[in-house]
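Summarise this fold before class:
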Amino acid sequence: MARKIQKALLGNLWLKIISLLIGAAIWMMVSNANNPTRTQLFTNIPITIVNQDAVADIDKVVEPEGSGVVTLRVTERRSILDLLSKSALPFYVEADMNNITEMNTVPLTVSCTTQSVTWDEIEIQPSSLKVTLEDKVEQTFVASVSVDGSVPSGYEVGSTEILEGKNIVIAGPKSLMNIINQVVAPINVSGRKSDDVVESTLKIYDKNGSLLTDSQLSSLEFKDEAGNVLNNHSVNVSVELWKIRTDVPINVETFGMPAWGYNVTSINTIPETISLAGTDEAFKEMGDSFYVPEQIDVSGATHSVTQEIDLTEILSLMPGLKLITDAAPTLQVSVQIEANNDITIKVPLSGIVFENKPDKMNLVLTPADEVQVKLHAVTEDAPHVSGDDLSLSADLSSCAKAGSYEIPIDVDVPKGYELAEEVRITVVSSKQEEITE
């Protein structure tokens, strides 16, 4: 029985081996047809420089040349290549400064997150990194804070402060340090409802306003003003939220004396009120109105004085207060100067008698609400007068034709006064449209 089994197993042995080889070949052909091996390029793979301390001992720093990225040529099965294409960071390319050559080149090594891909299946182009060894220099920059996002209604971001100090010490290659222009700590305040501390990664801008690349940043060392290393060039920013007060009255003070016989009769501002953001302590100290100290000089003035005031300059001297975002930074102030014993009475248009108003003409008056009548008292005992004591009239006969007219207004002045200046009104006359049936 054993011999029969042995004969069955060993009989036609070569035919069985050939059949096995043919089967294996067919399996490989089918496998390659469904999952063939091919070559694919992976571009813009960043180079990571490690062990830069190898040149730091000689006060040198590494400045990589070129773009800082490589292209990988990978030969693998299609399924593996598809998997690599879908991965976020499938490759890691490293330049180890311990391996720098006399030609200032560093061989590149590559590893893959997929273990089935071996180094002999990857070709690096270029295969080495050209570097320049530069003198290491150090410089101090003043960092600013940029704010993005919105806070709850009724509040604004009031003050921001980098807790490590606004002076940031940066060390790096001389050529790179020479192009640095600005250091900014960006923060986002969306959703924050109270004072907070926000971590920020510093952004570095060159003199063309462009951000430094990750490759350039890797050549720099960041410290605070106390000499502590800032890991990942990040800082902590303190953020304070201030309350908003709207419609705050403005109180402007003048200095100097008008010419003899003249005085200040009124001070008007545009806008009449402003909106401020501030701390509770600052609002308490400010009081019910915003005080603008002695900004308008009326020395020797005989006419009204108009001047623009920079509110941001004034507020810079008031800790805890600032204009709300998008508020106009300037204030227009008009100081009325009048001779002694002069008074100004406002009379509505309804108080003027318009005579000889032309028919079939549309008349538009400017000003549209009231006119100002300026009177001068000719006696010290001149009685008090108001608009009810005045009689005003205007002749509109000249407005019978279309056009723009400056019409004088006759004023019947009460006893003890004289008209200090002529009163006029602008009238634009146009024909009425005829209605046809």
